[in-house]
C-alpha cells in the first residue's frame, strides 16, 4: 500500500531547463547552466522549504535527472522529494517498459525510489497504468500521478490502480491565468473532492506572464518560446501591467503574483528554477494572499486577452 499520504510544499521546482546541454542555442531555453550555479539553487531552495524537485526521463534525454542528482549530492534522501515521469512516447520495447524507464531514472538520480512517478502523457491508459502497480508494491514508487490526462483518463487510471488498493494521488496539467482548461473541465473540482493534489505547470507561460516582456521588449528572437508568445504580447499587456501593480503593493513582481494566483486556486505550481534569485520570488509568492476581487479581476483580464496557449503536446481537456 502507499506509504503515507502525499504531502508537498506550496510550490514545486521544475528542472525542465536543466536538461540543456549548455551549448548556446542547443536546448529549449538556450541557457548556459553551470553545476555550481545549480548547486546554489538547490541550497537556497532546500533551506527555504522548497524540497520537491520535478524532472522527467525525457528532459534533455535524461540529462536533467543526472544534473539534478549531482546538485543534490550530500543531502539526506529524506530531505527532498523526487518527482519524475514515464513518457510513453519514448518507451522501449522490452517486456516491461515502465519498470525499465524507471530503473534508468533511478540510476541517473542515484536513488532507490521516487516519491512521485507520473505517466507523462495519456498514450494508452489501460496499457500503461497496470504496470505501475508492481512498482508501488515494491516501494520503488511511493505515489502515482498522471500528467496531461483529461477527466475520463484520470478516472480510468484511478480505477485501474484502485483495484490493487492504490490510487492516482496527483494530476499535473498546464494551468495558468491564460490557460484554465483543467478548471473548466471540472478537473480542479474533482481533485479537491477526492483529495488529489493538482500540480500546475507553465504557470508563467514560459516567461510571458512575468512582466519582463512586452511588445517593445519581446522574447529573444529565434527561441521557440518567442515564436509562440511574441505575437500575443500586445493582448497580454493589460493583464501583466495589473499583475505588476498588485505585486508592487506587496514588494513583489508580476511573476510572483502569477504564482500566488495558482496557489490561491488550490494548486501546487511547478516553477522552473535556474537561478538562486528565482527562489526569492517563490518565497515572496508563498507569502502573498490575493483577495477574491483581485483573483476575479486577473481572470477577467486574462479572459479579455482571448489567447490560446495550449501546447502542441496537449489534447483538449
UniProtKB/TrEMBL annotation:
Cited Pfam families? Aldo_ket_red
CDD domains, alphabetized: AKR_unchar
Q: What does the record give under GO molecular function?
A: oxidoreductase activity
Coiled-coil features, chain-numbered ranges = none
**From what superkingdom does this record's organism come?**
Bacteria
- Which part of the chain is the NADP-dependent oxidoreductase domain? 11-302
Name the record gives this protein = Predicted oxidoreductase
Tell me the organism. Actinacidiphila rubida
Organism classification: Bacteria, Bacillati, Actinomycetota, Actinomycetes, Kitasatosporales
Amino acid at each position: 500500500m502507499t506509504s503515507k499520504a502525499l504531502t508537498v510544499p506550496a510550490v514545486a521546482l521544475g528542472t525542465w531547463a536543466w536538461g540543456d546541454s549548455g551549448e548556446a542555442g542547443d536546448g529549449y531555453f538556450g541557457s548556459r547552466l553551470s553545476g555550481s550555479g545549480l548547486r546554489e539553487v538547490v541550497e537556497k531552495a532546500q533551506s527555504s522549504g522548497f524540497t520537491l524537485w520535478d524532472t522527467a526521463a525525457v528532459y534533455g534525454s535524461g540529462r536533467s535527472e543526472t544534473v539534478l542528482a549531482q546538485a543534490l549530492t550530500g543531502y539526506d534522501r529524506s530531505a527532498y522529494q523526487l518527482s519524475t515521469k514515464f513518457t510513453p512516447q519514448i518507451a522501449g520495447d522490452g517486456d516491461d517498459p515502465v519498470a525499465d524507464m524507471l530503473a534508468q531514472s533511478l540510476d541517473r538520480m542515484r536513488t532507490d525510489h521516487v516519491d512521485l512517478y507520473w505517466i507523462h502523457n495519456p498514450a494508452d491508459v489501460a496499457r500503461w497504468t497496470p504496470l505501475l502497480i508492481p512498482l508501488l508494491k515494491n516501494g520503488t514508487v511511493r505515489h502515482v500521478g498522471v500528467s496531461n490526462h483529461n477527466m475520463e483518463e484520470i478516472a480510468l487510471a484511478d480505477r485501474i490502480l484502485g483495484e490493487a488498493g492504490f490510487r492516482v494521488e496527483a494530476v499535473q496539467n498546464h494551468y495558468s491565468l491564460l490557460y484554465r482548461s483543467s478548471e473548466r473541465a471540472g478537473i480542479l473540482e474533482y481533485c479537491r473532492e477526492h483529495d488529489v493534489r493538482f500540480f500546475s505547470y507553465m504557470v508563467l507561460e514560459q516567461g510571458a506572464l512575468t512582466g519582463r516582456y512586452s511588445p517593445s521588449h519581446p522574447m529573444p528572437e529565434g527561441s521557440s518560446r518567442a515564436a509562440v508568445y511574441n505575437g500575443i504580447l500586445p493582448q497580454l499587456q493589460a493583464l501583466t501591467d495589473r499583475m505588476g501593480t498588485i505585486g508592487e503593493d506587496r514588494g513583489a513582481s508580476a511573476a510572483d503574483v502569477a504564482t500566488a494566483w495558482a496557489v490561491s486556486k488550490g494548486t501546487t505550481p511547478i516553477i522552473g528554477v535556474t537561478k538562486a534569485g528565482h527562489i526569492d520570488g517563490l518565497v515572496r509568492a508563498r507569502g502573498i494572499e490575493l483577495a477574491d476581487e483581485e483573483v476575479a479581476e486577473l481572470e477577467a483580464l486574462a479572459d479579455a486577452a482571448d489567447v490560446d496557449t495550449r501546447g502542441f503536446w496537449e489534447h483538449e481537456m
